UniProtKB/TrEMBL annotation, chain A:
Chain ranges of the ABC transporter domain: 21-276, 294-533
Annotated SUPFAM superfamilies: P-loop containing nucleoside triphosphate hydrolases
Keywords of the record: ATP-binding, Nucleotide-binding, Transport
Compartment(s) where it occurs, according to its Swiss-Prot or TrEMBL record: Cell inner membrane
Protein name: ABC transporter ATP-binding protein
From TrEMBL, chain B:
The protein's name: ABC transporter permease
TM helices/strands, residue ranges: 12-30, 102-125, 137-162, 182-201, 239-265, 285-311
InterPro entries given in the database record: BPD_transp_1_N (IPR045621), MetI-like (IPR000515), MetI-like_sf (IPR035906)
Record keywords, A-Z: Cell membrane, Membrane, Transmembrane, Transmembrane helix, Transport
Pfam families: BPD_transp_1, BPD_transp_1_N
Major subcellular location class: membrane
Similarity comment text for this entry: Belongs to the binding-protein-dependent transport system permease family.
Stretches assigned to the ABC transmembrane type-1 domain: 98-304
Membrane topology designation: Multi-pass membrane protein
Gene3D superfamilies from the UniProt entry: MetI-like
Localization per Swiss-Prot or TrEMBL: Cell membrane
Lineage, top ranks: Bacteria, Pseudomonadati, Pseudomonadota, Alphaproteobacteria, Rhodobacterales
Length: 558, 319
């Protein structure tokens, strides 16, 4: 930080009046420790510049690894992990904060610039009450008295639409819902009345129906307090609702930077257009949906004494895709557990190829097990980190077909080809793969059993949009090739539109709507499907306001 | 009933069952020891008749099960029977000895716990810098030295060379003030402090460092708080459970592992009592000491578990 120039009035004068934050030619680096190689320094942000005026919001967008969060945290002169700011200037109201000593930086953080993290659930201290954490920065920086701070927190809770603002602060983090926590974190960031707030993917971890409310609350709070903000996300549709300017980042470089309207309606760069056009091609639904490879009839299920599924019925024809949608806790994954036999139902039957399956896993034959395989959301934790790709994919080959040695190796190579990864990956460990590659290996492992049905439990929701797009394409190609059927669990309506033949909408353990895709997605809707569909961000300016005005029911937790 | 209370009662119940199980193991274990008290006691005069007489007198001719239940019944009301060696009441002797041992352990704990937790916090504060390294090296050195060695070093340097503190034998005087007795047991207490401090300090450091990686510590840093406040206010409360656990384990060690130190300093505590009883096969005393040691261990661990349950805000403030 020593190479940053001083904070003299000359350089400050260059900042335009009304500008809260100006970042000039920011360079950020880190030291990486590759296995079996000496550690080396790399640069992750290569000279990024932007400016934000009072009351304005800059949206930073890009895929993971683009440097969004790193740039956002630089506004607090903070480097996460081993990250260092190696060059450039960050001017906050005419003062280069990178040139400040440690104590000066502490005076910026939590006082003039605040931060809202992606996972509020992890960012709140579980040992303290929410209210104490919300007012802490304001008190420790001596900005107001305890009474004033409490009063301001109460006012912010109200602005953000939190329930019971008078006593909300008495609760502990684990006592409120995820959407409420995210809003409480926004209140915490607003409490010291900062000049700038950095929002780091504040709605990414939320359900789509909750996201819309939090988004609206954040937007209202920004307007009312006239604070400047950086809003980081990978979802262009979200950032379009809230920003004045947008900067598209890729590999630590600025791809395009301009006013929101121009970026959405007339993007100049190919990469921006690519981000805009994700999932524009939609697969037509299958004509004949009468047969049933898999049929669920009247399933009731419970965890211990707590009932979670009520009278769930649906069916899936061979070679087709059934999408199961709904928010977290609606029973999507539990339905998959019932199908696999991990959770025997209390009532109802699961039929496969016209034969009822034994309810419990232990009663199913090896052949029945082979025909139903799974892909999980977290490819990371679904693989043994100490096994190579060849071992992971080879296991079902040995287990179901007794393949050994050269024969097994040949089949592994075939499968690697099928998932569009070369044979060079056979000896790699999961830790050496990217997120998309890990998910591909999981798909190959499922395919190795030659299944008739693959249960996909949110396989793309942890991935970047463009990577997710690739995975979906692969799944569709494999379906065309092998006539495998998918039961695809997701909360992402865009994915559903793109790949499904039929859809089951689940809400609070029940199927509220089931049928062919075109029928389910056409009005008249029941209230929940209406809410769900209207909550999906659209790449249009003013979508947020229109959606809030026209929906018929409130999302859960409000 | 609140879930916390239910959890705590369950934990206490497990503790009671454990103590019962250990009492049975202890009784049977001692029973299985080779050698015979009567043989040993009579030495040259061990005629078959005399041995049988003594065995009858001590009730050794009864079935094991009966003797166990008889003994357990006594233990429950605090009666540990009579010493075979001198016929005195074990409970009475044990009471005095236990009081001495607990006193020594308490003095050691009063020093060891705050010092080790404090050093642990300090080590986190200066993580990977010189003070942290010095603390680490010293604690490693302390943990590597056996307590008899530390005890003799202390006696040699402090008591003999510099005249600080008393050397063996150290016999607490019930009539003297607490402060005088604290001064009296200073050297054995410090020996114990050296033995337990390193483990507690290292666990405290590790527990807090683990928490320092969490997202809410980053939140605190981004609030512009001072490092000391972050450690103390945001990290330490979440590290309480593991710290309580290691403290309890070491407190138990202070009571149970004190045997060697008591022998070195000729201190009339449980440890010496135990060692003496083993040498003459005074079974009732061995059993009594064993069950008391086990109970101390189990009770302290139980308290640690209860403490950890109470330290968890999710359990203290249910939804």
């Amino acid at each position: 930080m020593s190479e940053a120039p001083g904070t003299g009035p000359d350089s400050a004068a260059a900042t335009a009046p009304g500008t809260v934050l100006e970042v000039r030619d920011l360079h950020i680096g880190a030291t990486v420790y590759p296995p079996n190689e000496p550690p080396r320094d790399i640069e992750i942000v290569h000279g990024v510049s932007f400016a934000i005026e009072k009351g304005k919001v800059l949206g930073l967008i890009g895929e993971s690894g683009a440097g969004k969060s790193t740039i956002g945290l630089a506004a607090l002169a903070y480097g996460r992990g081993g990250v260092r700011i190696t060059g450039g200037e960050v001017w906050l109201h005419g003062e280069n904060i990178l040139a400040l000593p440690k104590s000066g930086i502490r005076g910026v953080r939590g006082r003039r610039v605040t931060y809202v993290a992606q996972s509020a659930a992890a960012a709140f201290n579980p040992a303290h009450r929410l209210g104490d954490q919300v007012v802490e920065a304001a008190l420790k920086h001596g900005l107001m008295s305890r009474r004033e701070a409490r009063e301001r927190a109460r006012m912010l809770f109200e602005t953000l639409g939190l329930p019971d603002p008078d006593s909300f602060g008495r609760r502990f983090p684990h006592q409120v819902s995820g959407g409420q926590l995210q809003r409480a974190m926004t209140a915490m960031a607003l409490c010291p009345a900062p000049d700038l707030i950095v929002f780091d993917e504040p709605t990414t971890a939320l359900d789509v129906t909750t996201q819309i409310d939090v988004l609206a609350a954040i937007k209202r709070a920004i307007e009312e307090t006239d604070v400047a903000a950086i809003y980081i996300t990978h979802d262009l549709a979200v950032v379009a609702q809230i920003s004045d300017d947008i900067m598209v980042l890729r590999h630590g470089n600025t791809v395009e930077y301009g006013p929101v309207q121009q970026m959405i309606e007339a993007p100049r760069e190919a990469y921006t257009r690519e981000l805009l056009s994700i999932r524009s091609d939609i697969k037509p639904q299958a004509e004949d949906q009468s047969g049933a490879l898999l049929q669920l009839e009247g399933i009731d299920a419970a965890y211990g004494e707590v009932p979670v599924l009520f009278d769930v019925s649906m069916h899936l024809p061979k070679g087709q895709t059934l999408a199961v949608v709904g928010e977290s806790g609606s029973g999507k994954s539990t339905t998959a557990r019932v199908i696999t036999g991990l959770l025997p139902p209390r009532a109802g039957t699961v039929s496969f190829k016209g034969e009822p399956l034994p309810p419990a896993l232990s009663r199913r034959s090896k052949e029945q097990l082979r025909q139903i395989q799974m892909i999980y959301q977290m490819a990371d934790t679904a693989m043994n980190p100490r096994q190579t790709v060849a071992e992971i994919i080879g296991r079902p080959l040995g287990f179901y077909f007794g393949l050994k040695g050269g024969e097994r190796a040949r089949r592994v190579a075939e499968l690697l080809d099928q998932i569009e990864m070369g044979q060079g990956f056979a000896d790699r460990y999961p830790a050496e793969l990217s997120g998309g590659q890990k998910q591909r290996v999981c798909i190959a492992r499922a395919l190795a059993a030659n299944p008739e049905l693959i249960l996909c439990d949110e396989p793309t929701s942890a991935l970047d949009p463009l990577v997710a797009e690739g995975i979906l394409k692969l799944l569709m190609e494999l379906q065309a090739e092998t006539r495998v059927s998918y039961l695809f669990i997701t909360h992402d309506i865009a994915t559903v539109r793109a790949i499904s033949d039929s859809i089951a909408v689940m809400y609070m353990g029940r199927v509220v709507r089931f049928g062919p895709k075109d029928e389910v997605l056409s009005p008249p809707f029941d209230d929940y499907t209406d809410l769900l569909l209207k909550s999906v961000p659209e790449m249009k300016l003013g979508w947020l306001e229109r959606a809030l005005a026209s929906r018929r029911m409130d999302s859960a937790g409000n | 009933m609140s879930p916390v209370l239910a959890l705590i009662l369950k934990r206490i119940g497990i503790g009671v069952v454990l103590i019962l199980a250990i009492s049975a193991l202890l009784f049977l274990g001692v029973e299985a020891l080779p050698g015979d008290f009567a043989q040993n006691f009579l030495g040259q005069a061990a005629t078959p008749e005399a041995v049988a007489n003594i065995r009858r007198e001590l009730g050794l001719d009864q079935p094991v099960m009966l003797r166990y239940l008889d003994w357990l019944g006594g233990v429950v009301i605090g009666d540990f029977g009579e010493s075979w060696a001198n016929g005195s009441s074990v409970s009475e002797q044990l009471g005095k000895r236990l009081a001495n041992t607990l006193f020594l352990a308490a003095v050691a704990a009063v020093f060891a716990v705050p010092i080790s937790v404090g050093l642990g916090v300090l080590a986190v504060f200066y993580r990977n810098r010189l003070p942290d390294r010095i603390i680490n090296i010293l604690s490693l050195a302390a943990i590597s030295m056996p307590e008899f060695f530390v005890g003799y070093l202390f006696i040699f340097f402090f008591a003999l060379q510099f005249g600080i503190g008393d050397g063996p034998p150290i016999i607490p005087d019930p009539r003297a003030s607490v402060w005088e007795n604290v001064q009296l047991v200073f050297l054995p207490a410090m020996t114990l402090v050296v033995v337990v401090i390193a483990h507690m300090m290292r666990m405290t450091r590790a527990a807090i460092l683990n928490i320092m990686e969490s997202a809410y510590v980053e939140t605190a840093e981004l609030k512009g708080l001072s490092m000391l406040r972050i450690i103390w206010k945001h990290a330490a409360p979440n590290a309480v459970a593991p710290i309580i656990n290691v403290v309890a384990l070491n407190l138990a060690y202070l009571v149970v592992g004190v045997v060697v130190v008591e022998v070195i300093f000729a201190y009339p505590g449980m440890g010496q009592y135990f060692v003496d009883a083993v040498t003459v096969r005074d079974i009732p005393v061995v059993q009594a000491c064993g069950i008391v040691f086990a109970a101390v261990y189990i009770i302290l661990n139980m308290l640690a578990d209860v403490g950890a349950i109470l330290a968890n805000p999710r359990l203290r403030h249910p939804k």
